[in-house]
Every structure is written in C-alpha cells, then in structure tokens.
Amino acid sequence: MTEHRNEHLCETTSTTMRQNSILTSRFAADDINHGDGNGGDAVHPRPGQALVIPADLRRPIHVTDITATAMRAHQHLLHGTVTQHMLRRPAGHLYTSEDAVRQRPPRNPRADVLHRLCGADTLLERLTGPDILGDAVVVGPRHHGQDTSAPQALLDLADYPGPYQVQLRTLGRPDTWATRSRRYDTWPAAGTAALELARDLTMVCDVRIVPAVSHEQHREWAYTASLTPAPYRRPGMPATLLDPDQIIPCASVSELAAHLTGDITPHQETPTANAFQYQDLCLVRCAGDAPAWLALRHHVTVPLEVDFRPWPPVVCAQLIRLLLNATREQLLIQQP
C-alpha cells in the first residue's frame, strides 16, 4: 500500500514538474522519477565525485570525477597507502596519505576544520584529536568495496560562495540547533569560529556550519512574504507574517526536505517554524487553512500550492534541488 502511494506521489510530482519550465528546461523526466537513495541530495546521480582538499592554501579545493568501477579512488588520488578518518555528519570518509605523514607534510587547515566538524568521534575527541596533515580526499561511504561519491552536502559546501553561519547545540537544549547571527565569508572561517566556541563555552555539546545569506536578504524575504497573497487566500485572511530572525537555515537539501515533509529527527525539531532556508532559497509556509508555500530566490516569488507532508522526502528534495538550479529567468516564468 505504501509503495503504491509513493509511486503515485512520484508520478504526480513528475507530472507537476513537467508542466513547470524550471524543470523541463534542465532535466529529463527520468531524472525526476528516480532519487539518489541517500536522502535526495542529488537529482541526477553521477558515477561519483571526490572532494580534493589540498594542504597548500594557494591551491583551490576542487571536485574530481571517480569512475563507477574505481575500487579505491582515494588511493589513486593520494598516490599510495592512506589513512582513513570517518565522517559522521554527513557519512563518508576523509583520507590522507600515510606515506606523506612519515615525511611530516604541512597541516591541512581546511581539511582539519572539516574533520573536526564532521568526524565520527565525540566533540571532545574531535577538538583534541591530531591535526590532518597533507592533501586530503573526501568520498562517501564504501559500497561493495567501492568508493561512492562524496556527500552532496559537502560538495555544496565547497561550491557555495558564502556567507556561512554557525549553529550549536547546548546541554540545556540538546535537541535544537541554535543559529548564531554573525556571518562569515567562507566555510573554513565559519568552521574555525564554531570550533572556538565549542572550546570556550562549556555548555556546548555540538557545533556545525550552514550556508547563509545576508541580514538584508532575510529582511527582504520577510517583507516579500507579507506582501504576497498566499494561494487560496480569501479576503480578510491574515497575511503571512515572518520574523527575519526566525528563518531557519538548514545544513543540506535533505534536511530542508525533512522539515517540509515533517520527517524530521528530534535534534532538528522546530514545530512552530514557518520558514526554512538552504543556501539562497527560502521556503515560507503561507498563512491560512489551505496548505501552501512560497519559494523565494533571486528576488522572485514562486507560489507552491502543495502540501508537502504526504510526500516522500526524496521527492521533495528533488523539487528543492531543481529550484536551486533554476535561473532567475526560469523562476520568473512561474509567477502567476
């Protein structure tokens, strides 16, 4: 029964998307009907991509393709025996060269920050653990002995130009991510600040960073939402009132999809939230009885007359990713 319902939802979503030029102009129907099986952080699965983080700060972080048949892509990229560092959030592996460690290469500050933020150990162990030395490669979890693609959230992290914000969980509220207001230009700077907070504040039990927008953008979103009539809104119904400081930044597409569908884990639970953001996309729940949302991006408002709660999160994530990939011109076409 559940399988039939999900299949119907995917078909309905696919039909809606085909009627929307945002989607048909960039992706084939098959891309919409199939998720990535990992929370929907990819619309069209690729053979695999590894994130390469050089120790030399003059060299940019870059993404390289790994073939579907590569058994140990990280060994090829690092030229020899490797040391494995587990990542927990999101799941994956960070590899460094074991041979290079014997030669005492320079510390890799960007990979070191990433490992201390996302490593599988406890926060204290991550804060006090050894430095990451030399070039590093990030891939996803192993599958049948093969390296899988690096987590999409980390690929997004390397690609997003900024700004970034710090989120933390405290012993008093261990199930809630609290967002700090300060913005940082780059993710390594935000990550370094997050780790410093964790060292300085004894009540902090976890930290992370999220892609952000400016204070001005938050205020513009709130103002736009208040002026935009919600779908199905009747005369006399209240406007969508939004406090800019209550827009909740998400760490990944899959987390945003989980909020929209109600499939959220306890540490992400924010039952009264009306607006969520990932990168430069904001989704605002409209006031009124009928379920409806506003998608705000590129100074364009796209009304979504849909209730996301019955949707499988992977399907919702596909729609989010397509909105993120759309140009301003494609979004303008969707305005009523």
Topology overview:
Elements: H1 2-18, H2 21-24, H3 29-33, E1 49-53, E2 62-65, H4 73-78, E3 82-87, E4 92-97, H5 98-102, H6 109-118, H7 123-128, E5 136-139, E6 142-143, E7 146-147, H8 152-159, E8 164-170, E9 178-179, H9 187-200, E10 204-211, H10 215-227, E11 248-249, H11 253-261, E12 275-278, E13 281-285, E14 293-297, E15 300-304, H12 313-325, H13 328-333
Parallel strand pairs: 11-12
Antiparallel strand pairs: 1-2, 1-5, 3-4, 4-5, 6-7, 8-9, 8-10, 12-13, 13-14, 14-15
Your description of this structure?
With 336 residues, this protein is an alpha+beta fold. It has 3 domains: 2-34 and 213-231 and 239-333, no CATH class; 49-157, no CATH class; 160-211. Helix content is 35%, strand content 20%. It is built from 13 helices and 15 strands. The strands form 4 sheets. The protein has a 5-stranded antiparallel beta sheet with strand order 2-1-5-4-3. It has a 5-stranded mixed beta sheet with strand order 11-12-13-14-15, with helices on both faces. It has a 3-stranded antiparallel beta sheet with strand order 9-8-10. Helix 11 crosses helix 12 (313-325). The protein starts with a helix and ends with a helix.
